[in-house]
């Protein structure tokens, strides 16, 4: 205690109300220790020790593991009679083999053979064989006699005891031992289930799939437990082996476990409970997509919030996968009749049910799939003629102006309403600000992108397709933060149709079945097939099943790169129902506008502004160095690469490497190590930057400078 006495009297002399009083002590409490030791209750300490101690069996650590251990125990007890008989039979076979080896004097014979003296030793070996036959005969006679005598004197009881002891001895001899020939059946039956009971089978599968070496083993972190309609297990790989490699070679592991790869989910366990060598596996009992598809949960809700991820589908483990749409964009690609339109409509359904969203729908399939959206869409077109393509071009020009105007207005808003140059939920619902979440859905986007109608853009001759590609690329880069979402579906996900610059900036990707791994990479991103994600391997019968690479967190975890998902099934009747409800919600909220309100609002076009924006899309002149030069370089040379080696940038742009690294990190771009395949086919690990990071940094810098 540090105290000081204020000896002065508080009463002032002469004041009638105030009287003289004793000294007042004034002080402050000073702790000896800045952080006093807090006593941890013994129960908590015990619990902590129990969970972390390697001496406590795993099965006693959690309830689920204990229940599983109990189930395994019961199954083991029920199976034990058969296992015992099996072991005795194997013991008999092993015993017979050993006896044969002994009687044929195999070891002596082999030694003689090796030293090429078999002819010399032949008589000796024969004599020994004869002698051993005689010994065998004598032992048989002696045992038979002994049995008769014991049976005559003491009855059958001692014989039974001897028989039981002999069968136990045979069972011990015949017990399954790894690596001993003759004790392990060459076909272990349905391996899918065997590994759940016998971890050795799992270890063998990892070895067979060449994921671990012959002398290496796995450490069981969590024993096999029932999760949904399958088995789940978590294992640690031996030191230096990587979980990412197991994910990559999932197919080999599926083969080793004798299951279809669609039944096997392998994930790296990340975060606090995981590390680079910890693998979580889930094996479905049967094809998880053979069951009838589920209807979308949106049918059961009266309204949806566009800021919430939209229910998109289920993964093989039947986990619900929701797709975040705001602040990102989505590309759906597949060959015909695989469920692209269904997938794009699912994304749309969530936004339809939010009356504060504005929808643009361009259906170049010109079918019935999107017709119902007419009743909610601010702008709607269906057809594949030049006039439709040109109408889309005008919409995009309007959206470019809208995005620019939003950024301008956001700059003038105070920090409390708009803390960053990004739209917030409150801003999007504030009718005075007029910045609703705006989504543009373009089905069969390859139609406008391939259109060759010549147009004049501020004196520059272009085809409509090229200009639409440029507008979409600009929007995909800049519009998500301003609340404009792009959803593009294409039947032809090839590099010629969808410009690489556009692909690179689309945040979320969903690849249903495509023709080959190249097309799959075009939708999902460079080298995704080498990381174990190739949508050309999906089965044609699995309609609506695709690989989702989300931009943001999903139920499978924030760190999961991609996952196989089956979209919810939303046939036309359900879609119509949702659109009807979306219209009613908009009517009630007073937000029904444009085409849906029967008044195709005049386009607010600013072609000069849009052309200027597109012309300066990468905005290299606006950006600080070295970002400007890097952006210019990647626009010209990155194609559809996701990763640019530092050496390439430093070499091409003539930068000093250390200063370059420092400056790039100031703009939020940190380099990382990645494996790349060089032109001569070699794989090397190099340092470099993610193109997406560079573009994001450029967009931020560009926005900050008044794009
Ligand atoms: N999640 C799903 N579950 C089951 N079946 C589905 C699912 N999604 C789509 N399908 C089926 O796939 C068929 C094709 O779907 P969709 O029309 O979306 O294909 P598409 O890829 O857009 O075809 P196209 O390229 O010809 O336009 C649908 O008729 C539907 O029956």
TrEMBL record:
Which keywords belong to this entry?
ATP-binding, Cell cycle, Cell division, Membrane, Nucleotide-binding, Transmembrane, Transmembrane helix
Residues binding ATP are 334-341
Name the PROSITE patterns on file.
FTSK (PS50901)
The record's section on InterPro entries has: FtsK/SpoIIIE/SftA, FtsK_dom, P-loop_NTPase
- TM region(s), chain numbering: 135-153
Pinpoint the FtsK domain residues.
Answer: 307-521
Q: Which SUPFAM superfamilies does the protein's record reference?
A: P-loop containing nucleoside triphosphate hydrolases
Q: Which GO terms describe its biological process?
A: cell division
Q: What is this protein called?
A: Cell division protein FtsK
The taxonomy runs: Bacteria, Bacillati, Actinomycetota, Actinomycetes, Pseudonocardiales
